[in-house]
Amino acid sequence: MEDQVLSQTDLVPPEQAGELPGHAVTPPKGRGDALGFARLLQQLRSERGWSKAVLATRAGLDPSSITRFEQGSRAPERETVLQLADGMALPKRDRDSLLAAAGFRSELWDDPLLIELSQVLAEDSLPAAVRSEVQSVIRMAIAYCRLQRLDHP
């Protein structure tokens, strides 16, 4: 699946994020804009007790870029968001939050299995009963995973 990357100055308004291929369909509330990304980036950096220079070094970026991102005066490219996430060694949930805040889709949608599943379920020729059965199996798998997470925190 191709991923569309925004230029450094382009932003995707949250209400339009689902219209572009490769972008979050429903960005988290208050995200998907430069200020939402700026606040989240600053929060994640502050939680680690890092200066902008430390984050820039760890992410392989110029410190002035971190300043512009945190001021909301510059929108990052998807690859830059991933560099920031790698530099902070963010867990998957925080990586996805940072991507969504910048207007990009989750990395989870890069999984070939999820891509295939969404394509199969979108087929008009798929009988409604089969679609319903598949959705039931998915719901059971989700419930199972949640139970396992509770049993093994």
From TrEMBL:
Pfam families on file: HTH_31
Cited InterPro entries: Cro/C1-type_HTH, Lambda_DNA-bd_dom_sf
Domain (HTH cro/C1-type) ranges: 41-95
PROSITE patterns linked to this entry: HTH_CROC1 (PS50943)
Taxonomic superkingdom: Bacteria
Gene Ontology molecular function, alphabetical: DNA binding
Region of interest (Disordered), ranges: 1-31
Compositionally biased region (Polar residues): 1-10
Name the record gives this protein: HTH cro/C1-type domain-containing protein
Organism of this sequence: uncultured Thermomicrobiales bacterium
